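Appendix C: a fully annotated inverse folding record. The material below is reproduced so that readers can follow the format used throughout the book. The structure is listed first as tokens, followed by the designed sequence.
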């Protein structure tokens, strides 16, 4: 499932949120093209096609970059393009490199000899204190003009699912063109240097700035991060998320694999429901971690009791991290609604002010409801008491221990 936007948005809905971004010196960029993918096959085919057309550089940053067929296809393209003179840079998070057996740390010399300038972000080493300080971002930038970000990692299960666990796999990724690409390019450059790489700058990497580019469309994109380089960046994602929820006036559709938000986000959701915002939440009935499944159930039940509609997705593992407000504004990225994402991980998200994109994501949300069942009071009370009490403890344990 894919979407390409070319329409304008209503500016009225974004005034308050844009004022907050301006007060925090968070730049708002233009977008010439916005495409959305919820199919791993469609996303990777588009990405590979763009990589094949690269003329100057390919930059990739991933939390998981598996040693499997889709990763091999990406690396093969990068090898070929490197031989043709294209600069290929890759950052892989160190924890999943070691824990999942990908072992890129043992292949650095080989890949660099093949022209791929690869670095491991915070290698997982003794005394293992970096376990919770992970690079959870997913960013690709091609020639400074095309960028991808969202929830997809590089692994075959994004396309094939995980048979025997939850079958299929659903995620959300956006492809962007326009000056907003430079916001993601800057974030990639920060982590590339932090991982040990050499910095880069100039018109080939930031072509829109070099050309003093001015867009004539009304689509705007804000690039948000959660980073550790300064105190304001540590709180940027969490505070922006709170303001995003506070700006909603009519509806709020939330899709997330994990529902254990920080207190400030929980309060924002309560405020939204009190002022009459119709809140709907969708998450997987069966996820990838049983303890999180229990915590999700407990907190979603609390939301349901306050008036939210909660949908439990059964068709596949729903890994999307999407929020759509008022049918005009959407947020897509790597950030889950849990403590680890909002207080520990390095994260990225884009806020898109484009009614066509938001409405497409809303229609996808409704379509996903057809493959879900609604959490009701009757359903919850018919669950085994052991599952409900497990959810109570999981909610507080995961909230304070991540």
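Designed amino acids, in order:
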């Amino acid at each position: 499932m894919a979407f390409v936007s070319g329409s304008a948005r209503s500016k009225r809905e974004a005034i308050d949120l844009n004022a907050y971004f301006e007060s925090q010196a968070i730049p708002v960029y233009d977008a010439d093209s916005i495409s959305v993918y919820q199919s791993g096959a469609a996303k990777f085919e588009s990405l590979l096609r763009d990589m094949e057309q690269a003329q100057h550089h390919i930059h990739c940053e991933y939390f998981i970059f598996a040693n499997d067929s889709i990763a091999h296809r990406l690396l093969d393209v990068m090898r070929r393009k490197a031989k043709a003179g294209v600069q290929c840079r890759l950052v892989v998070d160190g924890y999943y490199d070691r824990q999942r057996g990908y072992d890129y740390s043992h292949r650095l010399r080989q890949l660099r000899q093949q022209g791929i300038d690869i670095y491991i972000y915070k290698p997982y080493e003794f005394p293992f204190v970096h376990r919770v300080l992970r690079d959870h971002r997913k960013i690709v930038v091609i020639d400074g003009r095309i960028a991808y970000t969202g929830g997809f990692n590089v692994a075959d299960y994004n396309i094939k699912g995980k048979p025997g666990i939850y079958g299929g796999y659903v995620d959300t990724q956006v492809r962007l063109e326009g000056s907003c690409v430079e916001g993601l390019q800057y974030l990639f450059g920060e982590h590339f240097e932090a991982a040990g790489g050499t910095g880069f700058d100039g018109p080939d990497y930031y072509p829109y700035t070099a050309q003093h580019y001015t867009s004539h469309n009304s689509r705007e994109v804000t690039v948000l991060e959660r980073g550790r380089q300064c105190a304001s960046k540590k709180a940027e994602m969490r505070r922006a998320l709170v303001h995003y929820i506070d700006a909603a006036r009519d509806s709020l559709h939330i899709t997330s694999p994990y529902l254990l938000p920080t207190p400030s986000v929980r309060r924002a959701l309560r405020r939204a429901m009190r002022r009459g915002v119709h809140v709907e939440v969708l998450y997987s009935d069966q996820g990838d971690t049983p303890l999180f499944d229990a915590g999700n159930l407990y907190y979603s039940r609390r939301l349901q009791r306050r008036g939210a509609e909660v949908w439990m997705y059964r068709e596949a593992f729903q890994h999307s991290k999407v929020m759509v407000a008022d049918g005009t504004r959407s947020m897509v990225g790597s950030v889950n609604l849990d403590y680890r994402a909002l207080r520990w991980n390095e994260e990225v998200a884009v806020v898109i002010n484009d009614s066509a994109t938001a409405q497409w994501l809303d229609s996808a949300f409704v379509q996903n409801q057809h493959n879900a069942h609604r959490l009701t009071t009757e359903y919850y009370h018919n669950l085994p008491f052991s599952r409900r009490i497990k959810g109570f403890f999981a909610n507080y344990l995961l909230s304070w221990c991540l």
